[in-house]
Amino acid sequence: MEKEALITALKKIVKPYIQDEEAFENLSENTDFIKDLKINSANLVDVILDVEDTFDIIVDNESMEKMLTVKAALEIITTKLSEK
Amino acid sequence: MTSAEIIALLPYQKPFLFVDELTSISENSITGIYTFEKAAFFYEGHFKGNPVTPGVILTEVMAQIGVVCLGIFLLKDEIRQLSAPKIALTSNQIDFFLPVFPNEKVTVISEKEFFRFNKLKCKVQMFNASKELVCRGFISGMIK
Description:
The complex is a heterodimer of chains A (84) and B (144).
Chain A: H1 3-14, H2 21-25, H3 41-55, H4 61-66, H5 70-83
Chain B: H1 3-9, E1 21-25, E2 29-35, H2 55-80, E3 87-96, E4 105-116, E5 119-127, E6 133-143
Antiparallel strand pairs in B: 1-2, 2-4, 3-6, 4-5, 5-6
């Protein structure tokens, strides 16, 4: 999947949980889920479960701890997809 | 883990402990009971001269039995070493069907939806002594 398509899919997933609309509109690879989008830790779990469903992958604890930015999420999703 | 062991690990005490006993516990579900004391603090104000258990308290009963007690059971050994687990309610969506009056006994049945990355989400139902549905919904919390 192209990076742009991945970002679009990820934006759709995080949208219900964000607090900062402006940061969401300007979402880039460097966007931090917690610091920029103000997603809380419970909703970050929801984001990860939605990522698992959307891409049909399993996110382990180690990956989950790293998945704090759009960039890290894209890397993890891409890696997991390539392992399939 | 027994009912008494789980209740002893709850981070609540009177007048905000709303679990009398857990009657069945497994990895996927939990059932517990609570009887509302006539002298409970909230009846004096809810409502004036007409005591009815507030919905927020019914929600609290469901959260304590259905999410916190189940969460303690699921964490088991991890939690035994700590004095009390760290918990936070993160969301709930509850529909209410019947009022609950002083001295009523309620049964809470909770089924685990998922427990991942310290977030526990449950489908929770409350029944009165006549086995009628009082309220139901989904409650999530973080526990560690």
